[in-house]
Amino acid sequence: MDILIKKARLEEGAELQDVAIKDGKIAAIGHAIDADAKQVIEANGKVLVPGFIEGHIHLDKALIADRLPNKSGTLKEAIEVTAKLKPTFTKEDILDRAQRTIEMLIVNGTTHIRTHAEFDPSQGFTGFEAIMELKEKYKSFIDMQVVAFPQEGIFKAPGTEEMMFQAMEAGADVVGGIPYNDSPAKEHIDLVFEIAKKYGKPIDFHQDFKDDPEGMTIEYICEKTIAEGYEGQVSLGHVTALGAVPKKQLEPIIEGLAKAQISIMSLPATDLHMGGRNDEYNVRRGLTPIRALRDGGVNMCIATNNIRNAFTPYGTGDLVQTAMLAIPTAHLGGAADLPTVLPMITTNPAKALGIKDYGIEVGHTANLVLLDTESVTNAIIDLPTRLFVIKNGRVTVKTEKIVTVYR
Ligand SMILES: [Zn+2]
């Protein structure tokens, strides 16, 4: 064996297990596995989870908050500030910031990401090409899916339609879209489906990012997904407007999402920062209705979106902290709710991203994180140190924490 992890906690209340890894795969799981290994990790009852899955992040515009502040904190100013900064981005600059961000994710136990790489006729493919380079460079640390993302719209920014096809030809893994920032929104959605079908790729929309439900196109996407036979291949990020829909109207939408097997990515770090900015009192939380979606059978995920820019002026690349943000704000702290949060950054986004051999099972690729906690239920609220990160059967990160109390 290459690595033998001894006495790990895989499930709450179950016996501790040894996990043996060979040639990048999980070779055995059992009690007191008797095998020689090049490296032995004594878990001592600590929780072992599959690597965290970052389902929605923008690497190309991370770490720019100090360059030009968003004073109002609104989405409108965030878009304006970022549009001013974009012409100053060189490829070297994007590579430098994106690499630092990827490394923040890696040390925090993330083994897979889906990143939106944007382009438009005025900026060209500088950022997109930088991200495609990093996908290759970091492949032994993190698997990256790159979304061809038309941030400025497709029809609103003439020339972008052609660029969408060029990005797919250049190897993009997912077709992106942003119906709320384009007109006509339905034609934008139709075009994204057309491109996705042509290249046989999944779809990921930035969707209904507003405090109010007017102009939502989510119902159209549900219909379109089923009509095109795209069930299980569509993800939607933000979807905050759904939080403003009363229960009676919300129920059929949730049924539609579940039927179309659409995954929802809540982005609490951004949505809490930007939502409810026009509310002077009883300020809305501006999140998608996570509990109702989960209870309605929708594949519910939590992701980061942005780190330290005009949309989200904070963040450390730690998905556990991001999930923690959703616990009080989406009422996920109850005894029955808490165990449902960890899957929102592990198994659920793995399903959304179509990762085939995910999870701690014999024969699966060994992508694992050993957490400094002995409770699976509390794996988020303990904000545990990531003691070891294992990617493709190799230890990529080891973190040691020494706390000394002087009495
Ligand atoms: Zn986004």
From TrEMBL:
<dbReference type="InterPro" id="IPR032466">
    <property type="entry name" value="Metal_Hydrolase"/>
</dbReference>
<dbReference type="GO" id="GO:0019239">
    <property type="term" value="F:deaminase activity"/>
</dbReference>
<keyword id="KW-0378">Hydrolase</keyword>
<keyword id="KW-0479">Metal-binding</keyword>
<feature type="domain" description="Amidohydrolase 3">
    <location>
        <begin position="39"/>
        <end position="396"/>
    </location>
</feature>
<dbReference type="Pfam" id="PF07969">
    <property type="entry name" value="Amidohydro_3"/>
</dbReference>
<dbReference type="GO" id="GO:0016814">
    <property type="term" value="F:hydrolase activity, acting on carbon-nitrogen (but not peptide) bonds, in cyclic amidines"/>
</dbReference>
<dbReference type="InterPro" id="IPR013108">
    <property type="entry name" value="Amidohydro_3"/>
</dbReference>
<protein>
    <submittedName>
        <fullName>N-acyl-D-amino acid deacylase</fullName>
    </submittedName>
</protein>
<dbReference type="InterPro" id="IPR011059">
    <property type="entry name" value="Metal-dep_hydrolase_composite"/>
</dbReference>
<dbReference type="GO" id="GO:0046872">
    <property type="term" value="F:metal ion binding"/>
</dbReference>
<dbReference type="InterPro" id="IPR052349">
    <property type="entry name" value="Metallo-hydrolase_Enzymes"/>
</dbReference>
